[in-house]
Amino acid sequence: MTSAESFDSNAIEVDGIQFETLVPEPVVILPKSWFKQFLHLLQFWSRSPSSQLSSVPIKLGLSITNNTSQAIRFNFYPTPPTMLPQIVGSDGREIKLLNRGCFHPLSPSDSDFPSVMQGETVTFFLKAEILWWKSDRFVMNIAGTDGLFWRFEYLKPGNYQIRFKYHNQGKTKKSFGQNFKEVKFISGFWTGEFNTTWKEFYLVSS
Predict the structure, then answer these.
(1) Which end of the chain, N or C, is more open, meaning fewer C-beta atoms within 10 Å of its C-beta?
(2) Contact 194/12 with Cβ under 8 angstroms?
């Protein structure tokens, strides 16, 4: 396995495959606390729909460019996780990632194992949101396709960086069809690991 920085300073290349962290909208206006929202509605300061939300979405994603001569498949099923997001604050300290829960996860499906054709660039975006927690603290939830979610705590207004860490050694995975009536094995997975470069985003008080 070979690894090198690509000509794009935001991408890393491993075995002829480029990986890049995506944050297309890096400035995020934080949601108001429930108390502030209540006062806001009572006094009719604004009718903006966004000001009435206790959570706000944040676009976080990964771009993969396959520069090899063959199609490559990836494992994005999060139980057990092959890819994890990592966030650090402006002081370089890692933001705590909480346990993803104890509920029985949903079984993997074909969409958890996307294939990237040779010469193709594919982007994948996570379902992520930031919620007010208490005082001036916020948490970020990132939903997984298994029905569970990652939670980062505690966030405050300021600058942050995010990257993705991927590690997969399995060449074959099991996939379930609808209603668990169809079980099949999928092969052709890329085995290896990568850490994408850091990408900044900014949390701003509302």
Answers:
(1) N
(2) yes
Which whole-number Å values give the CA distances from 36 to 53, 61, 105, 119, in the listed order? 11, 31, 36, 50
- The Cα–Cα gap between 50 and 124 comes to 25
| Sheet hosting strand 121-125, strand order edge to edge | 3-5, 11-14, 17-22, 61-66, 121-125
pLDDT score of 8 more than 90: no
Residue-wise pLDDT tens digits, 161-182: 999 999 999 888 887 766 556 7
What proportion of the chain, given as a percentage, has pLDDT over 70? 80
